[in-house]
């Protein structure tokens, strides 16, 4: 348990400290100082209101009309100050929250995208689920709960220090007869408050401890269910063609049952905790009056003193009971931090993959891609391709062929530098453009122009140039829709998406073009015209293709054949 707690604290410190030592530390520190000042002002007004209770209720007891009116005026001023402080305390806290969240989100996005961690994490088969939720939801909850709990703890501490002295003074001494002697307990209300809060905190911990694990699981099951719904929407056409609605419904309901079952366990545990905390808080309303009543009925304190004592007891008890009242938030906060720790650990592991593996990508002066003693593995260590030695010169055309699963596409990923599993050396020409076209082109959300020019900005190519290349790539019917915003990945067929990839290639003019079955959804006659277009528009570029069609042989001078045993030959 000590190791777990130490890891938790180290993880919390790692997540939290970055913002407070960043380039925004001075603005963040100033905002925090303002919030703390408002926090202290809030407590000071509560102290003044506590003193006002004594004055106000004594005027009622003494039928003092002038004092009553004067007390109402004092209350109006205090209430106005309280409202102003409360409003700006909340506003400043929310301002700090959004600034902290913005900084954290930028850092996590940068780390997630760094060295293609978003891709590497999928290869590692680790325990990180739903990175999108970690960045969007868990970071929001972390910042919100961290500020609420830390500032709440600060306020509770200041309130305790302020009111415990008041309560000690108001309590006087309680004399308990023991035989012929008297036992005097100074400040007895303080001791009663401490005992009451201590017992409440201990019982809350015993009852509520399982909430940490339940909250962690609930966040995961909710994210898994949401992810399944998104996948159904993204693959709606394939599911409809297969008639897989029944299977999808079963899968979705199974995931939702996990949500429901865990939520029911959460409900039962929160029900038990609420039984206790509700009773605890209700008893706390009357409890100080009962404890202070003997001094009131013995005329040791007036009505105002009784109310002031009860109010001070309530403030002390509330401060000591901060953990009791916030236990559910603490449980949720701990679950969020555990998820972020796991996410951060997975990203760090992804960053270290390239350091552990021994595929080295170098940049050379010659206009050639050199592959020396390359062994390509899958993540579990099984070998796909062994001892590949290959040189591709600028202007060459190479077709990579072989049975499905032999590692053709994985070789392309390795040449692109995104597949780290294996050993060997790859040298690519320095300062030249390499472009990789996968089988299914990625079309970002936005206009068709943004999809055509991805990953460059809309001003990368002129409107006339884009239209002319689209005509050459058999996409003339789309030239008038360049500035129309749609979900193009669902509107365009796979063949049209592959044509868009060729438009990108012609516009970007790479020195080295790698096509991974980039014409698999295009008819043979269009495929022939597109390859002729590449050779005409990119005469000095090297073209390396992966494919199964024999028609591709006509567009390449060399052929690399890989078998399912990892062997290869060059023809």
Describe this structure in words.
This protein has 571 residues and is an alpha/beta fold. The chain has two domains: 110-354, ABC transporter transmembrane region fold (Up-down Bundle); 359-570, P-loop containing nucleotide triphosphate hydrolases (Rossmann fold, 3-Layer(aba) Sandwich). The chain contains 18 helices and 14 strands. The protein has helices at 2-20, 25-61, 65-113, 117-124, 131-171, 188-208, 211-234, 236-242, 245-297, 303-320, 322-325, 327-356, 408-416, 448-453, 463-472, 488-491, 494-508, 524-537, and strands spanning 173-178, 181-186, 358-364, 368-377, 383-393, 397-401, 422-429, 434-437, 446-447, 485-486, 512-516, 542-546, 558-562, 568-570. The strands form four sheets. The protein has a six-stranded mixed beta sheet with strand order 8-11-12-6-13-14, sandwiched between helices. The protein is elongated, with a radius of gyration of 35 Å.
Descriptors for this entry?
alpha/beta; 571 residues; Rossmann fold; 4-stranded mixed β-sheet; single chain; 6-stranded mixed β-sheet; ABC transporter transmembrane region fold; 18 helices
């Amino acid at each position: 348990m000590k190791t777990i707690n130490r890891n938790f604290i180290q993880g919390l410190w790692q997540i939290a400290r970055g913002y407070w030592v960043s380039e925004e530390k001075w603005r963040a520190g100033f905002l925090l100082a303002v919030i703390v000042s408002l926090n202290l002002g809030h407590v000071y007004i509560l102290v003044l209101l506590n003193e006002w209770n004594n004055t106000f209720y004594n005027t009622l007891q003494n039928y003092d009309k002038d004092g009553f009116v004067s007390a109402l005026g004092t209350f109006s001023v205090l209430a106005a100050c309280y409202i102003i402080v409360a409003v700006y305390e909340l506003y400043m806290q929310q301002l700090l929250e959004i600034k902290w969240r913005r900084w954290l989100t930028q850092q996590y996005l940068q780390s997630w995208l760094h060295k293609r961690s978003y891709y590497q994490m999928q290869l590692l088969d680790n325990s990180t689920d739903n990175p999108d939720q970690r960045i969007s939801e868990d970071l929001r909850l972390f910042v919100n709960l961290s500020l609420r709990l830390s500032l709440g703890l600060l306020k509770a501490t200041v309130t305790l220090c302020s009111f415990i002295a008041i309560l000690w003074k108001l309590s006087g001494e309680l004399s308990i007869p023991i035989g012929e002697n008297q036992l005097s307990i100074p400040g007895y209300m303080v001791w009663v408050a401490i005992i009451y809060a201590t017992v409440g905190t201990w019982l809350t911990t015993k009852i509520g401890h399982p909430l940490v694990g339940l909250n962690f699981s609930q966040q995961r099951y909710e994210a898994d269910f949401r992810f399944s719904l998104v996948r159904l929407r993204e693959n709606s056409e394939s599911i409809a063609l297969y008639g897989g609605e029944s299977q999808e419904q079963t899968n979705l309901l199974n995931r939702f049952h996990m949500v429901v079952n865990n939520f029911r366990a959460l409900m039962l545990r929160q029900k038990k905790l609420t039984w206790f905390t509700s009773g605890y808080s209700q008893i706390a309303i009357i409890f100080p009056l009962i404890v202070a009543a003997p001094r009131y009925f013995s005329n040791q304190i007036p009505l105002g003193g009784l109310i002031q004592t009860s109010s001070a007891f309530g403030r002390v008890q509330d401060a000591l009971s901060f953990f009791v009242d916030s236990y559910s938030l603490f449980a949720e906060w701990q679950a969020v931090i555990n998820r972020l720790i796991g996410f951060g650990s997975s990203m760090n592991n992804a960053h270290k993959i390239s350091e552990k593996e021994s595929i080295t990508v170098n940049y050379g002066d010659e206009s050639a891609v050199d592959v020396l003693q390359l062994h390509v593995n899958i993540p579990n260590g099984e070998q796909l391709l062994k001892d590949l030695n290959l040189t591709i010169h600028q202007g060459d055309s190479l077709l990579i062929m072989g049975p499905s699963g032999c590692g053709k596409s994985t070789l392309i990923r390795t040449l692109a530098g995104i597949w780290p599993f294996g050993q060997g050396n790859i040298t690519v020409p320095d300062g030249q453009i390499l472009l990789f076209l996968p089988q299914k082109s990625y079309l970002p959300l936005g206009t068709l122009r943004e999809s055509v020019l991805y990953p460059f900005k809309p001003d990368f190519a002129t409107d006339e140039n884009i239209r002319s290349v689209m005509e050459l790539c058999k996409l003339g019917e789309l030239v008038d829709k360049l500035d129309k915003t749609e979900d193009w990945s669902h509107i365009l067929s796979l063949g049209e998406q592959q044509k868009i990839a060729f438009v990108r290639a012609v516009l970007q003019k790479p020195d080295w073009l790698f096509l991974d079955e980039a014409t698999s959804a295009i008819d043979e006659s269009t495929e022939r015209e597109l390859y002729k277009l590449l050779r005409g528009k990119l005469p000095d570029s090297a073209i390396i293709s992966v494919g199964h069609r024999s028609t591709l042989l006509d567009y390449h001078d060399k052929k690399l054949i890989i078998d399912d045993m990892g062997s290869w030959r060059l023809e």
